[in-house]
Automatic annotation (TrEMBL):
InterPro entries: Formate_THF_ligase, Formate_THF_ligase_CS, P-loop_NTPase
Key word Ligase present: yes
Binding of ATP, residues: 63-70
Protein name: Formate--tetrahydrofolate ligase
HAMAP family linked: FTHFS (MF_01543)
Membership in a protein family: Belongs to the formate--tetrahydrofolate ligase family.
Record EC number: 6.3.4.3
First-level EC class: ligase
Organism: Sphingomonas qilianensis
Catalytic activity from the UniProt record: (6S)-5,6,7,8-tetrahydrofolate + formate + ATP = (6R)-10-formyltetrahydrofolate + ADP + phosphate
Keyword terms, alphabetized: ATP-binding, Ligase, Nucleotide-binding, One-carbon metabolism
GO molecular function: formate-tetrahydrofolate ligase activity
């Protein structure tokens, strides 16, 4: 069986100018990065008056058995084009950390991929490096300000801006910095997060242009004074230089699927520790150039979809016409209590037990007023009886489940899904609404997500967390939505609790203000904002072959 990278290399790609022409993007707006990828200068793209229909692809809770959300997104976009609909794909950029760790890339798989796969999964157009540099410039300017007299009276015990790196490195989670004497600054404790958890990443993905980008950067709260007043990036005069570093990164990236259909791959916040959606700019551009736009939100619908609705849609005014929930027989069997090593034999009873996970995700997405189709991403060995159980569960919750074989067959394997989604978009009646009102107190917003989406008894937190949230409310940040950071593997904060757990609590360990991005992060349970590498990282199998080609990258 061919690997993803072998399939990608065997494809005949079209020059990126031809892909842009399919969307009527003028030549002068295309800034090529090689032959098959480009930045798009939106200032040179004329207004079209189009308002495409937005389709969200989400999933059940992920398991090591895999669900294939990005692959399904690519297959659906290809299939919509096959049935005569002008569809554009919008995905996030992959992080280097998971590429060399466990999760792998995010360019799809099999015959449903975006290309050039190697470029997208590695350095691509340099967006993540620009975000890392802008973030760390701000960190350097904080310490420099303190070193040269601290005119803003920053309390070094209350500097909240950590540094970032686009790599999984547990050794950097908590550090002691500025050791070695006065010439190196004031010693203090700090740490690193992964770049995809950076507020700068979230800002790039939520900004609607350069002016808004710089304004948001200026609002970043980096520290507090001794009398607890917030200190911002604008106070440090860092926002202008940060915007300069991001001026190219904010332009959306255009690539293609293996079937030659246009795809914007831009921005990449994690969904378990950030808001998990591609950029607003790329999504709006696609909606103005196509009639249907397929986008995804990271991990399961309890994380990615909730944040897509409550953060991205709330801030941008986007309204999805339909949602696709990706499910697999293998993952539902794991949710039904079957070990990964025992997934081979057919077990419809286990699918039914694990189907409570799918059922809850359907209920949750419909709770936002968005109609749902379930995509059964078929694997070899899935039995007809097992897939019939998934169809039955979906039907019992008011949705249709459609069998998909896009991994093996490309767009042709997702035509039935495309027809079902187009039917929903063209004839459905979405009544989209966010989960909570802006005016609700911050902890009540956290509790609303915990009880209504996770089905917890309640969210709990130490008095210090409640006090911090009250101070932010008093400072004028109470209207912001919340961004829940928790494990992606369960509705609870315990990754071992599969299925659809109830009667659990959601412990909020820490809260962080992302004033520039426009949300408050609630860090729940043991989730880490700087992941670590596994016992056997994928990096061990990645190398250059004799001909200089990359080997081991999936």
């Amino acid at each position: 069986m061919l690997t993803d990278i072998a399939i990608s290399r065997a494809a005949t790609l079209q020059p990126i100018g031809e892909i842009a022409a399919k969307l009527n993007i003028p030549t002068e707006a295309v800034e090529p990065y090689g032959h098959f990828k480009a930045k798009i200068d939106l200032a040179r793209v004329p207004a079209t008056g189009r308002h495409g229909k937005l389709i969200l692809v989400t999933a059940i809770n992920p398991t090591p058995a895999g669900e294939g959300k990005s692959t399904t997104s690519v297959g659906l976009a290809d299939a919509l084009n096959l049935i005569g609909r002008k569809a554009v794909l919008c995905l996030r950029e992959p992080s280097l950390g998971p590429c060399f760790g466990t999760k792998g890339g995010a360019a799809g798989g099999g015959y449903a991929q975006v290309a050039p796969m190697e470029d997208i999964n590695l350095h691509f157009t340099g967006d993540f490096h620009a975000i890392t540099s802008a973030h760390n410039l701000l960190a350097a300017m904080i310490d420099n300000h303190v070193h040269w007299g601290n005119a803003l009276d920053i309390d070094v015990r209350r500097i909240v801006w950590r540094r970032v790196l686009d790599m999984n490195d547990r050794a950097l989670r908590d550090i002691a910095q500025s050791l070695g004497g006065p010439a190196n600054g004031f010693p203090r404790e700090s740490g690193f997060d992964i770049t995809v958890a950076s507020e700068v990443m979230a800002i790039l993905c939520l900004a609607d242009g350069l002016e808004d980008l710089e304004a948001r950067l200026g609002r970043i709260v980096v520290a507090y004074t001794r009398d607890r007043r917030p200190v911002t990036a604008r106070d440090l005069k860092a926002d202008g230089a940060m915007a300069v570093l991001l001026a190219q990164a904010i332009k959306p990236n255009l690539v293609q699927t293996l079937e030659g259909n246009p795809a914007f791959v831009h921005g990449g916040p994690f969904a378990n520790i950030a808001h998990g959606c591609n950029s607003v700019i790329a999504t709006r551009t696609a909606l103005a150039l196509g009639d249907y736009v397929v986008t995804e939100a990271g991990f399961g619908a309890d994380l990615g979809a909730e944040k897509f609705f409550d953060i991205k849609c709330r801030q941008s005014g986007l309204k999805p016409a339909a949602a696709v929930i990706v499910a697999t027989v293998r993952a539902l069997k794991m949710n039904g209590g079957v070990a990964k090593s025992d997934l081979g034999p057919a077990d419809a009873a286990a699918v039914r037990r694990g189907g409570v996970n799918l059922a809850r995700h359907i209920e949750n997405v419909r709770m936002f007023g968005v109609p749902v189709v379930v995509a059964i991403n078929r694997f070899d060995g899935d039995s007809a009886e097992e897939m019939a159980v998934i169809r039955e569960i979906a039907a019992a919750h008011g949705s249709q489940a459609v069998l998909c074989t896009h991994w093996a067959d490309g767009g042709a394997g997702a035509v039935a899904l495309a027809e079902a989604v187009a039917q929903l978009c063209d004839h459905g009646s979405p009544q989209f609404a966010t989960l909570y009102d802006d005016g609700l107190p911050l902890f009540e917003k956290i509790n609303t997500v915990a009880t209504r989406v996770y089905r917890a008894e309640e969210a709990i937190a130490d008095p210090s967390v409640h006090a911090q949230l009250r101070r932010w409310e008093e400072a004028g940040f109470g209207h912001l939505p919340v961004c829940m950071a928790k494990t992606q593997y369960s509705f609870s904060t315990d990754p071992a609790k599969l299925g659809a757990p109830t009667h659990h609590v959601v412990p909020v360990r820490e809260v962080r203000l992302s004033a520039g991005a426009g949300f408050v992060v609630a860090i729940c349970g043991e989730v880490m904002t700087m992941p670590g590498l596994p016992r056997v990282p994928a990096a061990e199998g990645i190398r250059l072959g004799a001909g200089g080609e990359i080997e081991g990258l999936f």
